[in-house]
């Protein structure tokens, strides 16, 4: 077995050593309950508020606008359910989203549809970017919420968040963005971008798992998610996960501080991958090649199926991801790849590689050597490829 | 581990991969849209399957079940090969995850489709009810409307 090459950082990341170190004292030194009144508890409370201030600063928000959660999915659920409650009170029960959101958003919207909400799902361009003009046309008098992801989790395309925010603010519609893939990777300014609600998850930027945050612009009313205590301004009961919260805050601070250098490095390596693997015949880049997260690579290779590709990459020590049905446990390929217009049979043959600051050029060079070999091997045993080559079936790529 | 050692062995080192140019029967089942297609070639002499090869587009278990199915029918009579069940393929592979069982169904159907093609080409009578027609509706596929949207 060769050394592991981890290229699935959109799934989760390694906790930075520096982050791990700042977390440790919270397990056996500063372990007091932040709700306790004695000094030992209040020391924990101070650290909790330091963490809140750090996260707020990274987003250009106020500390009181940051709520700690268990992660991105909870933040998405909470933001959307809160906006829906506000909408119900205003008798506004129309929500606008996109076809390629994360399921934490889509499934929450699905639940609201069953409760009488109407949801418009905006299509995305072939390049994986929503058109603000389409949004403009779908806004109605009873629209209470627009929820559009900051950057897509599969294809990494970055959405016109500032433009959407400006439009929503003008129309007095709440704007939520799922920034789980974007936070710590691209610059976010909730004030300048007119964002009302923003979800993030710690483990996507070298922080620990099981912790996230929801930014809530002052004045936006949250529903109570968990009853039973005064934590998080009485909106989310439960003793705070201080090691996780503090770890996330430091991880985000670090990520923002080194964002430019990391992004430049990742972009260079990512583009090297695109240039090399685009030479594979009948392949295509998924999503806009430039307006995307610096660490996201996603391509389709015609005539092969993604799970087989992943298993063989795993044998070579490479951890990767695919939008094929078989890797999702469902029978349909990625809804994101279908949303950008890839036919089912092509979407099954996708490969996502997501880099990190730890990715080396040697690792990328090894991937550039391995992927074409494996694609070629799988194509040789593929009846679909056979038909494409013989002209029985038409190439889509 | 997602798959048993046996599945991984048949996935990594598939037996009988390829094409038989002068095959006596060719069966193709599945659908590229669903993410798996199996094509099976058989050579038949005196009612015995003397050679078998396959080509598969699909996941690890699709490739492994195809490989195992070819091993199980090679050298067998057509009647014996027709008794091959998906369960037998699964057992020979030391099991499959529940959501991958349809791959074994496809493998069984590919064998039957190849034999049916042999019978058709040689105008041998058979009971049509016993054979998959090679379309997606034959297998257990159900598509989640929501995820497709």
Mean pLDDT of chain A, as a whole number?
Answer: 96
Could you give the distance between the termini of chain A?
34 Å
N-to-C order of helices and strands of chain B: HEEEHHHHH
Number of domains of chain B: 1
How many helices of chain A in DSSP terms?
Answer: 15
Largest interface: A-B, 34 and 35 residues
Gross CATH architecture of the largest domain in chain A: 3-Layer(aba) Sandwich
Number of domains of chain A: 2
Q: Poorly predicted ranges of chain B (pLDDT <50, ≥5 residues)?
A: 136-149
How would you classify the quaternary structure? heterodimer
Order of helices and strands of chain A: EHHHEHEHEHEHEEEHHEEHEHHHEHH
Main sheet summary of chain B = 3 strands, antiparallel
The count of DSSP E runs of length 2 or more, i.e. the number of strands of chain B, is: 3
SS-based class of chain A: alpha/beta
CATH architecture of chain B: Alpha-Beta Complex
Going across the major beta sheet of chain A, what is the strand order?
2-8-7-6-5-3-4
Percent of residues in beta strands of chain A: 5-15%
CATH topology of chain B: Sufe protein. Chain: A
What are the segments of chain A in which pLDDT stays under 50 over at least 5 consecutive residues? none
CATH class of the largest domain in chain A: Alpha Beta
């Amino acid at each position: 077995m060769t050394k592991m090459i981890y290229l699935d950082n959109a799934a989760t990341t390694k906790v930075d050593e520096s982050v791990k170190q700042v977390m440790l004292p919270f397990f056996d030194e500063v372990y007091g309950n932040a709700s306790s009144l004695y000094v030992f508890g209040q020391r924990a409370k101070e650290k909790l508020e330091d963490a809140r201030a750090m996260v707020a600063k990274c987003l250009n928000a106020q500390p009181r606008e940051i709520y700690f959660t268990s992660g991105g999915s909870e933040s998405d659920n909470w933001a959307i359910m809160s906006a829906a409650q506000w909408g119900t009170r205003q008798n506004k029960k129309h929500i606008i989203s996109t076809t390629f959101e994360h399921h934490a958003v889509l499934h929450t919207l699905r639940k609201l549809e069953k409760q009488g909400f109407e949801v418009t799902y905006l299509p995305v361009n072939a390049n994986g970017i929503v058109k603000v003009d389409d949004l403009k046309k779908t806004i109605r008098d009873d629209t209470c919420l627009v929820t559009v992801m900051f950057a897509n989790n599969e294809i990494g395309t970055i959405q016109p968040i500032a433009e959407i925010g400006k439009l929503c603010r003008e129309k007095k519609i709440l704007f939520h963005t799922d920034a789980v893939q974007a936070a710590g990777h691209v610059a976010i300014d909730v004030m300048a971008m007119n964002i009302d609600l923003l979800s993030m998850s710690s483990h996507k930027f070298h922080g620990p798992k099981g912790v996230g945050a929801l930014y809530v612009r002052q004045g936006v009313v949250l529903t109570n998610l968990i009853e039973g205590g005064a934590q998080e301004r009485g909106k989310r009961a439960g003793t705070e996960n201080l090691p996780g919260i503090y770890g996330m805050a430091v991880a985000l601070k670090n990520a923002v501080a080194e964002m430019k250098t990391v992004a430049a490095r990742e972009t260079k390596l990512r583009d090297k991958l695109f240039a090399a693997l685009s030479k594979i015949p009948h392949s295509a880049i998924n999503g806009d090649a430039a307006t995307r997260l610096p660490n996201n690579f996603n391509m389709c290779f015609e005539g092969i199926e993604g799970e087989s590709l992943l298993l063989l990459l795993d044998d070579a020590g490479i951890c990767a991801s695919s939008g094929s049905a078989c890797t999702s446990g469902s029978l349909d390929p990625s809804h994101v790849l279908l949303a950008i217009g890839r036919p089912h049979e092509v979407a099954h043959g996708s490969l996502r590689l997501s880099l990190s600051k730890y990715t080396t050029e040697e690792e990328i060079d090894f991937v550039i050597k391995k992927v074409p070999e494996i694609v070629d091997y799988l194509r040789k045993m593929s009846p679909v490829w056979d038909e494409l080559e013989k002209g029985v079936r038409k190439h889509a790529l | 581990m997602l798959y048993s050692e046996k599945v991984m062995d048949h996935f990594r080192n598939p037996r009988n991969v390829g094409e038989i140019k002068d095959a006596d029967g060719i069966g193709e089942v599945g659908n590229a849209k669903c993410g798996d297609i199996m094509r099976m070639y058989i050579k038949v002499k005196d009612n015995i399957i003397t050679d078998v090869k396959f080509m598969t587009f699909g996941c690890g278990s699709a490739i492994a079940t195809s490989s195992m199915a070819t091993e199980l029918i090679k050298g067998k009579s057509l009647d014996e090969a027709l008794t091959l069940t998906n369960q037998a393929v699964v057992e020979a592979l030391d099991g499959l995850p529940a959501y991958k069982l349809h791959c074994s169904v496809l493998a069984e159907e590919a064998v039957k489709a190849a034999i049916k093609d042999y019978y058709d080409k040689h105008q041998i009578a058979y009971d049509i009810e016993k054979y998959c027609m090679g379309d997606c509706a034959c297998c257990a596929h159900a598509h989640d409307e929501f995820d497709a949207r």
